[in-house]
Specification:
About 80% of the residues lie in helices and about 0% in strands. The chain starts with a helix and ends with a helix.
Length: about 350
Amino acid sequence: MLRLPKIMLLVMGVGLLLHGLAAGVLRAGGPALMGAGQFAQWHGPIMVCGFLGVVISLERATALKVWFGWAAPLLTGVGMGLFITTDNGPTGALMVLAGSLFHSVNQGLVLARQPNTANAIMLLGALFWVTANLLLLTGYTTPQLVLLWMNFLLFTIIGERIELSRVLVPNTLTQVLLLSALLQLLVASAMALWDYSMGFHIYGVGLLLAAIWAWQRDLAFRNYRLPGLSGYVAKALVCGWAWCLLAGILMLVFAGPSAGPVYDALLHAIFVGFIFSMIFGHAPIIFPGILGINIPYRPILYLPLGALQLFMLLRIGGDILAIGWLKYWASMGTTVIIPLFLLSMLSLIISAASVKK
């Protein structure tokens, strides 16, 4: 596929990210940016199904290189755009569901070409995304489905980390930890549909097991002292797994509420602390693969990564200690840091493109 259509799909994903951040600002008590009053209640699905759905399916379509593979990011992006601009109608939701189905087909084809554990786990993640999107159309609420959406992201990341750490030979302990973590996450996401509190408690155990598995199996824990890009990526991923561990502890201790400060802390420890640390770490690897440009590493990338960790710690502290002003300003800080990171990546991409010419 030509580079321009890929860039357009990336721009679509970033547009959804900005809408998702605007919804988060309004929910945190800030101003209604970008007409966020119309879609603020869908903050989570916009971030997961919109932004992350487009980026993850685009990366997979790029690797697959079949013409119909591009239907996944296209349908997902256009569908979520329709969903947030047409009073949350069914057409957009159905298109997002179709996009997730195409992504599952793409991942299934990748598994058929390269049958291994990593691709099988990523296919399971894709199927969790389909399941959540389908149940949303049948009337299930966002709190009931949030663990299924988490599984989409967690299984995708775990599969990616297995693939990128393949030089490490798995032993019996890491295999048992991995299987136990995946089973806990699967059972918990199903349990939450009927018993919300119990589902979250079980999910917390799964997150703890996943973090312990990563400590034993992820190459990042061996590379974090390296200089340059390898060291930066490893440090970002170690931060991400630390958030996974903290989220597991929080779910074990506080599981139960489907709204309020504690619920906010539980979700954002994973969806922002864990996921965006992983995004900050993987971006210098993923963007070159999608765009076909070698992006130079610059130490300035540590600035948004460190700021993200600081603001997230302050936000979780504000939630747990019920300090409203601390949570608010930390939320605003996170909202600013994420676009700043993307701008720093854009400057590196432009710099690399100029050198290539």
